[in-house]
Each structure stands twice: as C-alpha cells, then as structure tokens.
Amino acid sequence: MPTDTWWRDAVIYQIYPRSFADSDGDGMGDLPGITARLPQLRRLGVDAVWLSPFYPSPQHDAGYDVADYRGVDQRFGSLGDADKLITTAHDLGLKVIVDLVPNHTSSEHEWFRAALAAGPGSPERERYIFRDGEEPPNSWQSVFGGSAWERLPDGQWYLHLFDVSQPDLNWDHPEVRAEFLDVLRFWLDRGVDGFRVDVAHGLIKDAALTDWTAPSVILGGLDSVGPPPPMWDQEGVHDIYRQWRTVLDGYPGGRILVAEAWVQPEERLARYVRPDEMHQAFNFPYLEAPWTPADLREVIDTSLAATGAVGATTTWVLSNHDVVRHASRLGFPAGTGRRPGIGIGDPQPDTGLGLRRARAATLLMLALPGSAYLYQGEELGLPEHTTLPDEARQDPAWERSGHAERGRDGCRVPIPWEADAPSYGFGPTDASWLPQPAVWAEYALDRQVDVPGSTYELYRSALATRREHELGSGELAWLAGDVEALAFRNGDVTVVTNFGAEPVSLPHGARILLSSEPLDADGRVPTDVTVWATV
Question: Where is the chain membrane-spanning (predicted)?
Fold first, then answer.
C-alpha cells in the first residue's frame, strides 16, 4: 500500500493515556509511560496509535474538556514528551493520531473566561452559543443528563450538549474556524499523522435552535428514520471538513481525518468520507450489531456498499473508551440492548462466554477488508470492570443522570502489564486513578506472552496473518453454508464463524491458519468460534 494511503488497510490501536502506562507513580498514565511501551505495540503488530486527549484540562470529562489545544496537561507530561513520543513511534514504524475536540471547549478555556468577563452582547460571547430569556432557549437535553442549557448570573444561557463545564462553540463564527485551522497546523508541524475528530457530527446546530423533545443522545441514539436532530448531522459540517482536508493535503505522508460521527443510515455516514472530506469514519453500526449472523451480515454489506459508493475504506471496531468492552458486552444474550455501564447490583455478563465470543468476533472483524481499530487491553481479553465501586466513579454521566447511568469508567480502568507488580505493572506504585479488580492479574501481558492459545498471542498471530494475506486490502465474497454461520472468502482466505448450537463443517481440504478456539475432534467449527483457513 502506498505511504500516502497507509490508512486504507491499517490496524489502529487506541491508547487512553490515563490508563495505559504511568511512568512516575502518581496513579495517572502519561506520555513518557506510553513512549516506553510503544515497542510492545510494534511487537503486537499494529500500524498506528490513536491517543485520546492529553491537552491541558480541568479533567471534568477525562480531558474532553480542553482548556488549551496547543499544550500538554502537566498530568501527562510536556510538549517535549509529546515530541519524543511522536519521534519514537515513527522510528518504530508507527503512525500517530491525536484526538481533536472541536464541538466544545472547557469552561476554563481563555475564550470562555473572556466571554464570562465581557458580558451579554459582547464579541467574546459570539464564539459560543449564548441566548437570552427567562426560560431555557429550548428543550434540548445534555448527553450526560439534564438540560443542555446553563444560566449565568447575568441572565444569559449558554449551550452545553455535554457537561456544564463544556460550552459548545459557535461554528458559524469565523474566528472559531480560523482557530482550529491553526490548531491543525500546530500538530501537523509537530509530526502527527492525523486527527480523530470528537463529535464530528455536532459542530453545526440548526440555526433556529428548533425544539427537540427526545434526549440528546449520542451513544446508542442511532436512528435511520426521519431528519437528523437539530443538534446533530447538520449539512454545514461538511464545509468545515472540506477546509480541513485542504490543510491536511498540504502535508506529506498521508495525514488523515477520522470522524467520530454517530450517524445513520450508513449512506449518510458515508457523506463524511467523500473524496474531499474525511478519510475514515468509525463504524458504530457494526460495533452495535447483535451477535447474530443475519445482523452482522446486513451491517457488513451495508457498510461496504455505502463507503464503496464514495471510494472510501470501511472501518471496523468492537470496543472503545465510550462503550462496554466487547468481552463483557458479548457475555449477555444476543440482542441485549446497549448498556450505559455495568456496576454492582446490575445483571452480570457470563465472563467465559463473553471472552469466547470476543475472540471469535475479533477474528471475524480482522478478516474484513478495510481498516480496523483496537482498544487498549482488548488484546489481553480484558472484560469491563463490572463491580467498580460506585464511590470510585468519575464519569460525569454518573452524577448528571442521577445515578441512572453507571457511565464509562468500567472500560477505562488502567490495564495490567505484569501480574505480580504494583498496580499490575501500570506504574511503579500501587496508585491507580480507578481501582483495578483482583482478576486483572490473570489477564496481565506477562502471563500471556508466548503462551499458545492466549488472547494476546491470538491477536498477534491474527495481525501477522492479516498482513501476510493482505486481508485489509482484499475483497469480500460471501459463501453459501449453514444459516447459523457466516462464511466468506477474502483473497485466498476462507473465514467461517459459527453462531449456532451445532458445529459446522469447513470446506473440504481446508488448511487451518487460525482458530479462535480449538476445533472439534472431527475438525468441525464449534459454536462461537471463528476460523481462518485456506482451501
């Protein structure tokens, strides 16, 4: 694959900086910790890393409340540490994607502080969405619960589709657009290879602020019927990304934009990845698809058709920092709806079933043509921390929902590297910003490296085989077979996933390349198992 289109078949590994590796023992992951662990990601076999926000921030929403887009929060290190991370990654052959949060700033951003000081009617307030009135300007609800409007002592309201500490920017203002063009150049000049754009579908709001009585959901709120809500997926966002694409195209090496856009149907999502806009968009319909052959086949077909129509690559993802880890999510009966976190007293997943299905789901995903995203720790088979004490929760969704939603902390717990080390090798001390469960020891990397059949070695073998057989740049062709299975060919590899209770047969003469679990004694594929083979 040419260097400038590396992303079309890449496997990209998401790093959540707080929870990846802590170099100084304060319980918070940091950039030097990430840099020290990059060789292990190279050994795993990924092509790039994507870092969740590390900018200066009061951390009301784990860094997605950005106070300065051109710096590094002292909790994570310095700009020098960021430069060293980028250089080290490039020396290892890894690309680096950073998060960009353009929908809102922190309430501690210098622009918002200036807006508060300047008062109603000031030019400073025009950079955000302020309105007058005795009542909230409309019925919009925050994604984290409660009203999306906060009233100031001077009587004006400001919009915050997320936490009250995250005021939404006014993207109809030329200063806002110019500022982010400069932010893009700042990080591109430092060598980053792209940006994952947070809430990419939310920047432009309906000019009339039309009332919307449904909750302002962003996760699990996919709806393919009717017009988009007035705060999401408005037509004007596409002009912004055309401008951004022009900036990125001026840099060498294939710099990319990746949309976090919870948009349905897939044909509408594909509009974000037209040739003059973004390069990729996360495939959330695939992430949310039930564990059934019919549902998965439908979303695979629809996704490939939608992106193919605009000449884009399709992405595949099973876990990230906003959803229950798929090793736990798949431990519930197929078709169970999205859970806003899992905690003590909630229905608990079947851990063994969840891991078995997760391994099968991963092999299925990595065999599909396009680009794949992995979330840190999934290569260890990490489940959700489903018994995290409520008093330890830090996700603003927990408080703002009146404790109705557990929130996303369970998938953000620091990951284990060494079974017998303090904080399981996350850092040099026992400190950990979220408590790690005792079972983390059995998932630690040092318990899995070079262990045949371990989840880590399954991932490593899958990534190597995927590259060898060029599955990311291949083409999918469905095969006839058992109705309780999915079977397809990609290049010279045949892939079979069995969802049914009875084992299914492989094509005659199949030579096994990989299997998520051992086959039956007669060579058939057991339930919840994926096999790669050549015929």
Answer: none
